[in-house]
Amino acid sequence: MTIRIVLADDQPLVRSGLRVLMADHPDLEVVGEAATGSEAVELVRDVRPDVVVMDIRMPGMDGIEATRLITTGPATARVLVLTTFDEDDHVYGALRAGASGFLVKDMALSDILAAIRVVAAGDALIAPGVTRRLIADFAGPPRSHLKRSTRLIEGITEREREVLTLVGRGRTNIEIAQDLVISVATAKSHVSRLFTKLGARDRVQLVIVAYEAGLVTVPH
What we know:
The protein is of the alpha/beta class. It has helices spanning 12-22, 37-47, 63-72, 88-96, 109-120, 128-138, 158-168, 173-180, 184-198, 203-212; strands at residues 3-8, 28-34, 51-55, 78-83, 101-104, 125-126. It has ten helices and six strands. β4 (78-83), α4 (88-96) and β5 (101-104) form a beta-alpha-beta unit. The protein is globular and about 50 Å long.
């Protein structure tokens, strides 16, 4: 099945480069390009893509607000955010807005394409290097926008709490199964129940809950 993609970036060179690179992959099709957040929102409504590759910093409406409007609207498109390492605050805002993951602009092409495919398949993706930075940043002293509270995870079992903690650390289902000495199917089952109990749309939102509930900590 072909994955329909919208590229949203205010730099024509970035959009052009991604479009040319994706042209060599028959399962990826760029169905539209936008230079602003508002253009991206309108384009998603018109062409109904599977994935939007979204820059954060664009003139007018930024990528965070565009992501919020896309993910809360009728469209089923999933958003992958484009970022650089010095934009962690913006990345976190985009994830809270409903993005299914984020890409670093200097990532290898193969990693970027793999990320698009992962998100299109319904999973969520957080680049490992940036995950470490986010954990270090947001698992430290709480900020005004990060009000930690165990109320966020009321109603989950002790085992689910363990699974949520591991999800917050960026562990895959296979790694969770290994860590807890359970089957992969059981790990998936726990993650699915967490989606339902916590009202999370995808794995990224579980990571956010883990941060906000204070389950993820970093040695200092």
